[in-house]
């Protein structure tokens, strides 16, 4: 005590920190060497991959504004960075790696690193801010007798000491790990503008005035690299079980869903059993109901990591968390979550945001959509099965009811005549299609969910409401799966009407996937059921479908009979729209039989009837067929007019695939009028559209027509390349008829190019195809070309 009565605590030298204890001063000498406590950062893991970009972003945040002034207390660009993410995603390892690299950079943190784990999610180990500050102050060089009691006094002293360190050129990096709330971290944050801090939390800590950094899971390649490198680090480079079995490695990475904790545990399981094949571990993790239990080691477990987050949820949050896995698709909307929980969308949105803050759900780029990490989903489902057995059936029913009603509303905008009644639930066709596009994975999965959970009516209704949309978007494999489920359910419950509708929808999708005989069988069975039940309108639709399938199977005589039956039935019951469908498809079959005048008449009749019904989409389709028939009759200008009308309508309806088909047909007519350059442009546009739509058949047709147009200009090299591409595509799709056509045109081009030996070989191959198909017209054409080439006895 001095003669004036003032209290002064001196720790050597003369650096005054400030008034902190009962009016006294604490004077601190900054140590010449960093103490062990100031170098207390955990060692970074030897294996660390897939995070380079994240590390660089953190280093950018840690860099002082002016490197030259960093040692003299220069200001900090981003004083506090808060890294958040799912439990086990690697937040601690990321900040440790970044901190270790930052400390090595000259002048960045000469004062060292303060590190503490607050165990914020563990009620047994949780560290209070007061205790954490006590540890920090000791590490900073203050003896215990000079550390005050109470949070506020410790906080003031701590911040003053950090500022003094920075002022003396000994800037410190503070790392605060495992924080559960902003309140827990705030007292430990520096305020001098020079000291930097890194904070990790499972929650998004938006109350810290910090730069927020979200950490996601690893992608597949980084996941496999982590598995491989971890195993090699533990067992040596000769342990190449991951590298030598890429299929198993990919499976393990997928089953661990990119979560570093799970991946490191998987690698540890292989490390502990050096004889165990990677494929065996992959097989063991396949079963969803035991996967979480297998992803554990004595010192760590995925389930235990999730437990610490789950136990902090309130009652409503936990209940919604447990119900979310009932949604069968990869993500869900706020409205769907509200139906699961039996609440309104505003409340569901609040709960989802709280779960997102805890990184137990992930907000998607589209606002109002959410997804769960695969392992979190399994964890939530386990709790749901244990805790909500009595609620899950009702919640599933509410969700399915939501999907059925919304899909039926959206379906009123899909492939309907202009005068059709639209649902007021959606403002426009654009909104309806956008909703269906977004929800499609959920909706197709919900059909199977309904069938599996005893909601037969919902499953059937949803399948029927989806059918036109899936066809519209050319999702035919999904359409087959959905229709097949609906068919099984309808047959099981004895629903004859549902059975016939499912068969009809199945037949449409089968036709589009070139299963023509199967499609014919489906439509024929549907027509039989409808004849028995007396539903003549839908019987006519089934007969039309049957005729289309028969025509595609090249059974044209039978197809014509089916279409004529359908047309007569529609005429008898006054169904003008149905008549249009039958006549349009009759035109297709007649044209294939080279009965062009009859085909043109049928197509024109379809155009008239669709126009009466204000069905713009089908009117455009009939105009396309009409244009083709006119071209067959040599009326090319009239054909061009029809195709351009058709293009305009498809442009209005946004049907790009149909635009591609019409572009191809327009090119044919343009080429016949000598406008070859315009034809080539149309063909190229058609090819691009069909390639994008993955319609290989029509892409091949475009190449074949492009080859003919290029041949007409004498550009034989480009023409042969186009024909070769067409032949390749048709062989890949097993389309023998079009393979023969493309080979024939290829041979013609080779002949005109003077490559006669090749032309003979190609035409003989074409002849073989036509002979196998029994195509008299194709045989006649090809034999004629071979005769011109001097071949009287083809090798085929």
Automatic annotation (TrEMBL):
Cell cycle listed as a keyword: no
This protein's UniProt keywords: TPR repeat
Superkingdom of source: Bacteria
UniProt KW 4Fe-4S keyword: no
Listed PROSITE patterns: TPR
Gene3D superfamilies: P-loop containing nucleotide triphosphate hydrolases, Tetratricopeptide repeat domain
TPR repeats: 660-693
UniProt-recorded name of the protein: Uncharacterized protein
Organism in which the protein naturally occurs: Acrocarpospora pleiomorpha
Lineage: Bacteria, Bacillati, Actinomycetota, Actinomycetes, Streptosporangiales
């Amino acid at each position: 005590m001095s003669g004036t009565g003032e209290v002064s605590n001196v720790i050597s030298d003369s650096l005054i920190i400030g008034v902190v204890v009962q009016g006294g001063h604490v004077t601190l000498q900054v140590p010449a060497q960093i103490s062990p406590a100031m170098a207390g950062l955990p060692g970074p893991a030897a294996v660390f991959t897939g995070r380079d970009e994240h590390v660089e972003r953190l280093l950018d945040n840690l860099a002082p504004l002016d490197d030259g002034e960093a040692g003299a207390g220069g200001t900090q660009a981003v004083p506090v960075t808060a890294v958040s993410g799912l439990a086990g995603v690697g937040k601690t390892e990321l900040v440790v790696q970044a901190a270790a690299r930052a400390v090595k950079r000259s002048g960045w943190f000469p004062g060292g690193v303060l590190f503490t784990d607050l165990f914020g999610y563990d009620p047994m180990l949780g560290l209070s801010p007061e205790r954490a500050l006590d540890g920090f102050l000791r590490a900073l060089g203050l003896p215990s007798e000079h550390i005050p009691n109470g949070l506020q006094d410790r906080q003031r002293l701590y911040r003053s000491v950090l500022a003094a360190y920075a002022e003396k050129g000994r800037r410190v990096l503070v790392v605060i790990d495992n924080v559960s709330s902003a309140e827990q971290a705030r007292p430990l944050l520096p305020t001098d503008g020079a000291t930097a801090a890194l904070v990790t939390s499972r929650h998004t800590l938006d109350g810290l005035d910090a730069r927020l950094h979200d950490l996601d899971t690893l992608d597949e390649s980084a996941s496999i690299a982590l598995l491989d490198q971890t195993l090699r680090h533990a067992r040596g480079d000769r342990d190449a079980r991951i590298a030598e079995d890429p299929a198993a490695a990919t499976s393990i990475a997928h089953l661990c869903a990119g979560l570093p904790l799970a991946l490191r545990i998987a690698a540890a399981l292989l490390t502990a059993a050096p004889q165990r094949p990677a494929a065996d571990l992959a097989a063991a993790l396949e079963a969803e109901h035991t996967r979480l239990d297998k992803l554990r080691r004595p010192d760590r477990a995925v389930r235990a990591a999730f437990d610490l987050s789950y136990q902090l949820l309130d009652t409503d949050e936990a209940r919604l968390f447990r119900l979310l896995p009932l949604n069968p698709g990869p993500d869900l909307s706020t409205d769907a979550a509200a139906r699961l929980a039996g609440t309104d969308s505003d409340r569901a949105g609040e709960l989802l945001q709280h779960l997102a803050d805890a990184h137990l759900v992930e907000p998607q780029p589209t606002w109002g959509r959410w997804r769960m990490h695969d392992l979190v989903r399994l964890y939530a489902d386990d709790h749901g099965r244990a805790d909500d057995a009595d609620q899950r059936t009702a919640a599933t029913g509410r969700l399915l009811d939501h999907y059925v009603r919304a899909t039926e509303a959206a379906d009123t905008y899909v492939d309907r005549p202009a005068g059709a009644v639209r649902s007021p639930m959606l403002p426009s066709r654009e909104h309806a299609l956008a909703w269906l596009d977004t929800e499609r994975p959920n909706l197709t999965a919900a059909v199977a969910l309904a069938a599996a959970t005893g909601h037969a009516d919902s499953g059937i209704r949803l399948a029927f409401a989806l059918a036109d949309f899936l066809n519209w978007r050319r999702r035919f494999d999904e359409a087959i799966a959905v229709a097949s489920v609906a068919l099984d359910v309808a047959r099981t419950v004895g629903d004859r009407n549902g059975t016939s509708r499912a068969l009809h929808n199945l037949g449409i999708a089968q036709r589009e996937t070139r299963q023509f005989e199967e499609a014919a069988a489906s439509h024929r069975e549907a027509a039989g059921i409808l004849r028995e039940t007396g539903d003549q309108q839908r019987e006519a639709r089934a007969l039309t479908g049957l005729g289309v399938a028969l025509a595609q199977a090249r059974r044209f005589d039978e197809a014509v009979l089916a279409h004529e039956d359908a047309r007569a039935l529609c005429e008898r019951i006054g169904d003008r729209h149905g008549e249009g469908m039958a006549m349009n498809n009759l035109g297709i079959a007649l044209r294939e039989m080279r009965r062009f005048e009859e085909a043109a008449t049928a197509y024109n009749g379809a155009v008239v009837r669709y126009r009466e019904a204000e069905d713009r989409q089908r009117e455009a389709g009939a105009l396309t067929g009409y244009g083709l028939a006119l071209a067959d009759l040599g009326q090319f200008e009239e054909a061009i007019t029809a195709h351009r009308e058709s293009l305009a309508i498809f442009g209005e309806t946004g049907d790009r695939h149909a635009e591609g088909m019409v572009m191809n047909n327009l090119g044919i007519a343009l080429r016949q009028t000598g406008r070859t350059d315009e034809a080539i442009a149309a063909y190229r546009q058609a090819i691009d559209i069909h390639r994008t739509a993955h319609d290989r058949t029509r892409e091949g047709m475009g190449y074949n027509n492009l080859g003919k147009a290029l041949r007409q200009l004498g550009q034989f090299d480009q023409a042969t390349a186009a024909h070769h591409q067409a032949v390749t595509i048709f062989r890949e799709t097993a389309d023998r008829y079009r393979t023969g056509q493309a080979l024939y045109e290829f041979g013609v081009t080779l002949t005109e190019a003077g490559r006669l030996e090749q032309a003979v070989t190609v035409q003989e191959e074409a002849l073989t195809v036509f002979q196998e198909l029994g195509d008299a017209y194709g045989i006649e054409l090809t034999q004629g070309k071979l005769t011109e080439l001097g071949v009287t006895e083809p090798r085929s």
